[in-house]
């Protein structure tokens, strides 16, 4: 059994965003493609939390969807526990699916309002046939509710009777019901208030320790990521610009974009340090800038960055895609 | 007390519902001084936005201000007629909403919207209004303002749209800008830019700001004082540094501990058990008492009013004189 649970190699996803063909003919336009995910590779070891951070449009959720097989990759491979994932083979996917689950951002949209909590949580068990018999399923539902901090009496209620945080607990119980090893969490707390967010984050860490889960944790919030992740990948315009161990990334960020993101986080400790305000915004992903896609906003830009595409260079605990890092300028 | 721009006293906002009267704001009092940035924080349903809506007179019927007074510059504004309020809204109190896409009209260019706003509130010619608009867009940091002014909202990115909204809010040189979650819909790098613009322009123009947000980080960077709301009541109000570094109210204390920060090593987050009560179901006594770890008998019976404590006011029996004496 190897140490690596999930391996993603050169994953790419393009979306066709062309105008209808008639418009293209009349307006003499080319087909247009949006590269939402661009040659992304990473590994997640067993029992670890790997986080992907990035701003909107950086491809975080697209990667999550491809990892769980909800979206086909345009190119590249995903290996789960050494087995390549083949989205076209439904038999193989069904087998794999019981081993990974997903927690979505909005617990208001991810629970069927007409189903009782018992049925919501029992569905994966029925679908994968992991637990047989109504009595056994009910018993397992009660156990799961208890595990996520709700009571067995909540099983008969409907989702609308719960607050946002409680609903997210139900979503977690559902994700756990097929005994998965791996859970993809796509912004699991961004719809919640901070005090509730703290409850959910603590719960997720306790469950990880208790059940030995592996997480792919997706978030735009660097403070949350710092709290949860062992390893972190920073996405910019669909490409992984830096990967590093959690502590290392926050103590010694390499890539200029990572530095910028850390710089932009409001400072709750009120040290009174001056911010260098970040320039510009994320460019349109349909026509990304040539060379390094970050160069128009980068303060370390050189001629080479404008024309050549950087390749990953090793850093103490990971790698970074940046010429300035490669040349030792920063 | 000439430097107080806005004073809110015992504000009560109620909504009649089928299940009885729902009290969304229950006896809130605070002042905003001239040129001051007051942060208002709280979780969803705490009454942050409702406070803003009450001040600017935009509470949706059947909701109504059921008690208390709001004074702007010494003049009472909570009981004005629709027309009188309209003269104040936009001119003396302006508002920046959370979602910049819905606060701009998609069918009009930025120029048309800005010029209309300026001409509504000021007696200037169309040409002058347009020149002012361009200057405003320049101020909020829109590149090539004179060219982009004739664009439609959809041609701007989220961050740029929020800059336009800020320009609109500042168009009539208001005394008070109410910013309701102005950066919540934006990415963190853009958020820093917008906060910077809002802070700089308001201090240049001497406008006061009421910054409503759930993000303590934004408050820490921006506000002079902060008011913490819980279940429609004021829990604590005071200078930002004091409240953040040394929270008095147990709720504020828990709230601060539950925020993951970049500096913190990876210990567990403090968590407040349970969640905020529904407004129809507020417990007797202090609204926070079922979740509070320092609760005692009095909290379950009597409701605490804000008690002055140093630079701050805190609605908690722990800071009542009798209680302090008894503890000693």
From TrEMBL, chain A:
Keywords for the protein's UniProt record, in alphabetical order: ATP-binding, Nucleotide-binding, Transport
Molecular functions (GO terms): ATP binding; ATP hydrolysis activity
PROSITE patterns to which the protein is assigned, alphabetical: ABC_TRANSPORTER_1, ABC_TRANSPORTER_2
GO biological process: peptide transport; transmembrane transport
A Pfam family: oligo_HPY
Domain of life: Bacteria
Residue intervals of the ABC transporter domain: 6-262
InterPro entries named among the record's database cross-references: AAA+_ATPase, ABC_transp_ATP-bind, ABC_transporter-like_ATP-bd, ABC_transporter-like_CS, Oligopep_ABC_C, P-loop_NTPase
A single GO cellular-component term on record: plasma membrane
Localisation per UniProt entry: Cell inner membrane
Membrane association type: Peripheral membrane protein
Coarse class of the protein's main subcellular location: membrane
UniProt cross-references to Gene3D superfamilies, sorted A to Z: P-loop containing nucleotide triphosphate hydrolases (3.40.50.300)
Transmembrane portions of the chain: none
Family: Belongs to the ABC transporter superfamily.
Record-linked NCBIfam families: oligo_HPY
Name this protein carries in UniProt: ABC transporter ATP-binding protein
Automatic annotation (TrEMBL), chain B:
InterPro entries named in the record: AAA+_ATPase (IPR003593), ABC_Ni/Peptide_Import (IPR050388), ABC_transporter-like_ATP-bd (IPR003439), ABC_transporter-like_CS (IPR017871), Oligopep_ABC_C (IPR013563), P-loop_NTPase (IPR027417)
Membrane disposition: Peripheral membrane protein
Domain ABC transporter: 6-256
Segments traversing the membrane: none
GO biological process: peptide transport; transmembrane transport
Pfam families named in the record: ABC_tran, oligo_HPY
Localization: Cell inner membrane
GO cellular component terms attached to this protein's record: plasma membrane
Alphabetical keyword list: ATP-binding, Cell membrane, Membrane, Nucleotide-binding, Transport
GO molecular function terms noted in the UniProt entry: ATP binding; ATP hydrolysis activity
Source taxon at top rank: Bacteria
Family label: Belongs to the ABC transporter superfamily.
UniProt name for this protein: ABC transporter ATP-binding protein
Organism: Oceaniradius stylonematis
């Amino acid at each position: 059994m190897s140490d690596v649970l999930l391996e993603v190699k050169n994953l790419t996803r393009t979306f066709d965003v062309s105008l209808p063909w008639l418009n293209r003919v009349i307006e003499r336009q080319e087909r247009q493609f949006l590269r939402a995910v661009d040659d992304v590779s990473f590994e997640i070891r067993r029992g670890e939390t790997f986080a992907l951070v990035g701003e909107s449009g950086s491809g975080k959720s697209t990667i999550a969807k491809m990892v769980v097989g909800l979206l086909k990759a345009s190119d590249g491979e995903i290996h789960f526990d050494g087995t390549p994932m083949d989205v076209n083979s439904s038999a193989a996917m069904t087998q794999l699916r019981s081993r990974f689950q997903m927690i979505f951002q909005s617990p208001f949209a991810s629970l069927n309002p007409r189903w009782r909590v018992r049925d919501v949580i029992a569905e994966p068990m029925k679908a994968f046939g992991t637990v047989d018999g109504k009595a056994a399923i009910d018993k397992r539902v009660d156990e799961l509710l208890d595990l996520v901090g709700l009571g067995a009496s909540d099983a008969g209620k409907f989702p609308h009777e719960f607050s946002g945080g409680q609903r997210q607990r139900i979503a977690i119980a559902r994700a756990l019901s097929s005994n998965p090893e791996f859970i993809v969490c796509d912004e699991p707390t961004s719809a919640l208030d901070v005090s509730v967010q703290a409850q959910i984050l603590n719960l997720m860490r306790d469950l990880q320790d208790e059940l030995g889960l592996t997480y792919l944790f997706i978030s735009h919030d660097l403070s949350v990521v710092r709290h949860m992740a062992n390893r972190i990948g920073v996405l910019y315009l669909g490409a992984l610009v830096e990967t590093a161990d959690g502590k290392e990334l926050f103590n010694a960020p390499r890539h200029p974009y990572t530095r910028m993101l850390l710089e932009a986080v409001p400072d709750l400790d009120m040290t009174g340090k001056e911010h260098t305000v970040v320039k510009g915004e994320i460019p349109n992903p349909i026509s990304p800038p040539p060379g390094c896609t970050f160069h128009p906003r980068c303060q370390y830009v050189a001629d080479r960055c404008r024309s050549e595409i950087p390749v990953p260079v090793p850093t103490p605990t990971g790698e970074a895609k940046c010429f300035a890092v490669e040349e030792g300028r920063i | 007390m000439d430097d107080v721009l806005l004073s809110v006293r015992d504000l009560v906002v109620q909504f009649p519902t089928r299940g009885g009267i729902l009290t969304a704001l229950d006896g809130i009092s605070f002042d905003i001084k001239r040129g001051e940035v007051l942060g208002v924080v709280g979780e969803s349903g705490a009454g942050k936005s409702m406070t803003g809506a009450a001040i600017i007179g935009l509470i949706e019927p059947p909701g109504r201000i059921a008690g208390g007074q709001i004074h702007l510059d010494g003049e009472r504004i909570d009981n004005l007629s629709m027309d009188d309020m309209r003269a104040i809204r936009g001119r003396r109190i302006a508002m920046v909403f959370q979602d910049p896409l819905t606060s701009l009209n998609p069918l009009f260019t930025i120029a048309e919207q800005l010029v209309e706003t300026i001409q509504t509130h000021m007696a200037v010619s169309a040409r002058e209004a347009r020149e002012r608009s361009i200057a405003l867009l320049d101020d909020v940091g829109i590149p090539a303002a004179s060219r982009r002014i004739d664009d439609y909202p959809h041609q701007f990115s989220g961050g740029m749209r929020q800059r336009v909204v800020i320009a609109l809010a500042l168009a009539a040189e208001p005394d008070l800008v109410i910013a309701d979650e102005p950066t919540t819909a934006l990415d963190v790098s853009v958020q820093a830019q917008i906060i910077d613009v809002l802070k700089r322009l308001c201090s240049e123009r001497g406008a006061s700001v009421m910054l409503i947000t759930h993000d303590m980080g934004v408050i820490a960077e921006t506000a002079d004082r902060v008011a913490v709301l819980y279940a429609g009541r004021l829990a604590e109000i005071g200078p930002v540094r004091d409240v953040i570094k040394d929270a008095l109210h147990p709720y504020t204390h828990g709230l601060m501990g539950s925020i993951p920060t970049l500096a913190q090593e990876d210990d567990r987050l403090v968590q407040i058990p349970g969640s905020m009560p529904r407004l129809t179901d507020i417990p007797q006594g202090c609204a926070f008492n079922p979740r509070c770890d320092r609760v005692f008998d009095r909290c379950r019976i009597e409701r605490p009013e804000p008690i002055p404590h140093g630079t701050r006011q805190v609605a908690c029996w722990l800071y009542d004189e009798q209680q302090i004496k008894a503890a000693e």
